[in-house]
Write a structure and sequence with these properties.
Helix 4 runs antiparallel to helix 7, helix 7 packs antiparallel against helix 8 and helix 10 runs parallel beside helix 12. The protein is mainly α. The protein is globular and about 65 Å long. The protein has a domain of about 90 residues: Serine Threonine Protein Phosphatase 5, Tetratricopeptide repeat, CATH 1.25.40. The protein has 16 helices and no strands.
Length: about 280
């Protein structure tokens, strides 16, 4: 299952990259003040029942039956039994890489037992759910759910750097107050300069605002700590955008080496050919 998740992540990089560089960070480079209210309104339409139904599409019939059986048991279960069933359900959805229903499940667990871990996992799942969505109303709803979950987590443990990173990233991605999110992420890397997720998100937001020099610094930190195909791809793209072709080729080659995925490999081969001319 972990291999399936890795491939899903890797093959989405090229799509995300194209979307990333044409979409401004809301509030940083445009003055549109709309969106917050509409995101709140749309959240009422994005329910667990809806995302569960959508997430089952394309799954193996046996897995669908297993998930549906657990959902049926939940309807009449006691609170203590619900916790056990919800934990089983969260594992099922996570195994098949469906973050949207996973977020709802962890939020339901947190409502029954307000643990920090449940709220953090809910926020992380919601954040993953909206990351590659092109449906802006659904993305806005999941972003709002993520913000709420991270805020709940920080009410329990206000010093947790992972929750601060998640909240900061959600603020930048989906609100008209991106600088509050950037400030949170900078607070995290000040407390822990080696925090991978905070550095990666600051790098992505630097790319989105076309500050490629800053993005390079962030992604160099990330790959020095935990090299992966995605981060090397972003590093390469940042080098490419400021005309450092040799550095871009080297980073693309590292991304290709770590990806072991035909789709990304073919794309990188084309990029290297273009940069080598």
């Amino acid at each position: 299952m972990q291999r399936t998740k890795q491939i899903a992540t890797i093959t989405s990089i090229v799509i995300l990259m194209g979307f990333l560089l044409v979409q401004p960070i809301k509030g940083l480079v445009n003055k549109d003040k709309g969106g917050a209210a509409s995101d709140t309104e749309s959240s009422s339409l994005v329910t667990f029942e809806l995302v569960s139904q959508q997430a089952k599409q394309g799954l193996n019939v046996n897995i669908i039956k297993e998930i549906s059986d657990i959902e049926a048991q939940l309807r009449d279960a006691s609170d203590s039994k619900k916790i056990d069933l919800l934990q089983q359900l969260a594992m099922k959805w996570d195994d098949v890489n469906r973050p949207a229903p996973t977020g709802f499940i962890y939020e339901k667990l947190a409502d029954l037992d307000a643990k920090f871990d449940y709220w953090l996992k809910a926020g992380n799942a919601y954040r993953e759910a909206y990351a590659n969505l092109q449906d802006t109303s659904m993305a806005g709803a999941f972003n709002g759910y993520a913000i709420n979950a991270y805020q709940k987590a920080l009410e329990i443990n206000g010093n947790d750097l992972d929750a601060k990173t998640g909240l900061g990233s959600a603020y930048v991605s989906g609100t008209n107050n991106p600088m509050a999110g950037i400030a949170l992420l900078q607070e995290v890397v000040k407390a822990d300069p080696s925090h991978i997720d905070a550095n990666k998100n600051l790098g992505l937001f630097s790319m989105q605002s076309r500050q490629f020099d800053r993005a390079i610094d962030r992604f160099k930190t990330v790959v020095s700590l935990k090299p992966d195909a995605e981060s090397y791809f972003y590093l390469a793209t940042s080098y490419e955008n400021i005309g450092l072709k040799r550095e871009a080729i080297a980073a693309f080659e590292k991304s290709r080496e770590l990806a072991a995925d035909p789709t990304l490999t073919q794309f990188i081969n084309r990029k290297i050919d273009e940069l080598s001319k």
